[in-house]
């Protein structure tokens, strides 16, 4: 019996990008249901959905809940075996959903899957995420060629170990999410998919990279890159996870402290503000209310050393 598929698309304004995303989803080669969650957006998305995409299930939020909250409302409405989260700034190739969800039928312990996403210029945008021993997450193969990602990004490849999917497109077994919980709404933006990947792996669920499931991620079209707001939110997520997972109480505390100090100092020098530092402080305070997290997490790449982790941060859009 084939697995059923629900696709959750959180949106906040920017109709032209949302329309392109939905048109690409409409052209998919496998049956699915699309759930659009309008996060109290400022434009006429709801009206345009009603007239142009009547087949789409629409959830209209009365107040803005942020990425995690919007996704969770969509996940709560999902009833399919597999739920695929798709950012509205992603154009999926026609067979992305079919290929991305196929491995779930062969492995009952497969909890998540990631596609190969490209930038508009043809370089790789993301092939899932990895994490070092301080639980700092990085996008895999950002800026690489497709050939390199496919060659090195699979199981046993030379690339960094896959922890879980990148948030722009992420497929999850709904039963796995019911077991470990949905996105932590205490994280305002950046880090939600890392936290969920950590919890899924700690819960015994495996993950896979699917090289022939592909799409284009416009990247930053809805939130901007490098702004003070983006760096503050990224810092918030990092501070939250440091507290939630007790990283500063573990064996890698010194490395984590030194790394965060370097990152914050670099942000001050390059950007001439304290957005990253203030975000980390706020996130650290909020992380005290997070639920308990396991520190025994398969999939963490212990081969990512201190220097390499700093180098990875230089090119990582999430700071």
Automatic annotation (TrEMBL):
Keyword Transferase (UniProt): yes
Keyword tags: Glycosyltransferase, Transferase
SUPFAM superfamilies reported for this sequence: Nucleotide-diphospho-sugar transferases
Domain named Glycosyltransferase 2-like: residues: 7-109, 136-265
Pathway: Cell wall biogenesis; cell wall polysaccharide biosynthesis
GO molecular function terms noted in the UniProt entry: glycosyltransferase activity
InterPro entries: Glyco_trans_2-like (IPR001173), Nucleotide-diphossugar_trans (IPR029044)
Gene3D superfamilies: Spore Coat Polysaccharide Biosynthesis Protein SpsA, Chain A (3.90.550.10)
The keyword Glycosyltransferase appears for this protein: yes
Family statement: Belongs to the glycosyltransferase 2 family.
UniProt name for this protein: Glycosyltransferase 2-like domain-containing protein
Species name: Microterricola viridarii
């Amino acid at each position: 019996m084939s697995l059923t598929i629900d696709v959750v698309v959180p949106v906040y304004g920017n109709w032209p990008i949302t329309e392109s995303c939905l048109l690409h989803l409409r052209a998919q080669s496998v049956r699915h249901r699309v759930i659009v969650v309008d996060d109290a957006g400022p434009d006429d998305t709801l009206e345009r959905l009603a007239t142009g995409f009547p087949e789409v299930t629409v959830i209209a939020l009365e107040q803005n809940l942020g990425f995690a909250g919007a996704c969770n409302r969509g996940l709560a409405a999902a009833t399919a075996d597999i739920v695929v989260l798709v950012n509205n700034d992603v154009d999926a190739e026609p067979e992305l959903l079919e290929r991305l969800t196929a491995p779930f039928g062969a492995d009952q312990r497969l909890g998540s899957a990631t596609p190969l996403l490209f930038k508009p210029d043809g370089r790789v945008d993301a092939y899932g995420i990895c994490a070092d021993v301080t639980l700092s997450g990085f996008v895999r193969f950002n800026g690489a060629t497709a050939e390199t990602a496919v060659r090195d990004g699979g199981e046993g490849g030379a690339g960094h170990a896959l922890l879980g999917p990148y948030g722009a497109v992420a497929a999850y077994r709904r039963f796995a999410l019911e077991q470990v919980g949905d996105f932590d709404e205490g994280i305002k933006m950046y880090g939600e998919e890392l936290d969920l990947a950590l919890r899924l792996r700690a819960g015994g669920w495996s993950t896979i990279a699917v090289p022939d499931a592909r799409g284009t991620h416009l990247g930053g079209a809805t939130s901007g890159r490098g702004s003070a707001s983006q760096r503050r939110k990224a810092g918030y997520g990092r501070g939250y996870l440091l507290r939630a997972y007790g990283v500063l109480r573990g064996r890698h505390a010194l490395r984590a402290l030194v790394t965060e100090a370097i990152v914050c100092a670099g942000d001050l020098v390059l950007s001439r503000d304290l957005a990253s530092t203030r975000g980390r402080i706020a996130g650290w305070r909020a992380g005290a209310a997070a639920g308990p997290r396991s520190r025994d997490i398969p999939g963490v790449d212990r081969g990512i050393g201190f220097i390499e982790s700093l180098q990875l941060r230089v090119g990582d859009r999430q700071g």
